[in-house]
Amino acid sequence: MNRIKTIQSLQIRQIAEHLYDQGISITFFGKAWSGCTNNWIYFDTYLDLDDLKSRFNLDENLEVHENRDPKSGLERGFIDKVTGEAIMGKLKLD
To answer: How far apart are CA 73 and CA 27, in angstroms?
Structure first.
């Protein structure tokens, strides 16, 4: 939980605290790849982005990110446009 408190993005931090409080495990916290300059938090769950947008009244500052490349990781979540921080979950393939 202490690492979550270091997140500058209020919206990313609120979502992360909510998921953590629900007992969902963090699978990774840090710079997700060599070119990444900000912390990303990965949770061991599928994120319902529509529910999170509604629940936390998210604004346009968060953009949806989705990676469908099985080699680099299947992920879906939000990136904060200002801080570059992100919250990710697993990606459900259709």
So the answer is: 13
Cα 69 off chain centre by: 17
Neighbours of 76 (CB within 10 A): 17
Whole-angstrom distance, CA of residue 18 vs CA of residue 62: 17
pLDDT band at residue 45 under the 50/70/90 scheme: very high
pTM score above 0.85: yes
- How buried is residue 2: exposed, middle or buried, by Cβ count under 10 Å (0-12/13-18/19+)? exposed
Number of domains in the chain: 1
Domain that holds residue 54: 4-90
**pLDDT in the model for residue 73:** 76
